[in-house]
Design brief:
8 strands; alpha+beta; 148 residues; 5-stranded antiparallel barrel; globular
Length: 148
């Protein structure tokens, strides 16, 4: 299995935007004017958004929070090679917009990076999104417990 997890980013104005939402890749490799690859070391957490449209409007909008892995089981995720441990996934315009709005709001209110959130928090957030409940606030107590 690969030592790195590679994430494909593509931006074709008005047609598709597959991009990182958060996370610090070790390296970014530009493939051409519209495409690049971001390399993550095992254990790193990152957010990834995939949006595309056709002549009739948005046809695919998804967001993912993924922990990169170098061995063991991996979930196949479009644009993520060879895959990763899926911590949160949204599909569709409404769910993805809700998740992205929550990420924006949360990011402004915390003194640390989204990629530092514990895995358990992302799983809780996915459950809350799926059941259409309010997304949980990340308290310093959760962060303390995750680093204990």
């Amino acid at each position: 299995m690969s030592v790195f997890t590679l994430v494909e980013t593509i931006k074709l104005r008005g047609h598709c935007n597959h991009r990182l939402r958060f996370g610090q890749p070790l390296e970014e490799i530009k493939l051409d004017e519209n495409k690049s690859l971001a390399a993550f070391r095992a254990g790193q957490i990152f957010g990834y958004i995939r949006w595309s449209r056709n002549a009739f409007g948005t046809r695919n909008w998804q967001s993912f929070v993924v922990r990169s892995v170098s061995k063991g089981r991996v979930t196949r995720i479009p644009g993520v090679y060879p895959g990763g441990e899926l911590l949160l996934r949204t599909r569709g315009v409404v769910a993805t917009q809700k998740a992205l709005s929550w990420l924006d709001k949360t990011e402004k209110s915390i003194p640390f990076l989204l990629s530092d959130f514990p895995e358990s928090y992302w799983r809780l957030a996915e459950n809350e999104l799926f059941t259409d409940h309010q997304l949980p606030n990340l308290s310093s107590k959760i962060m303390e417990n995750s680093h204990a």
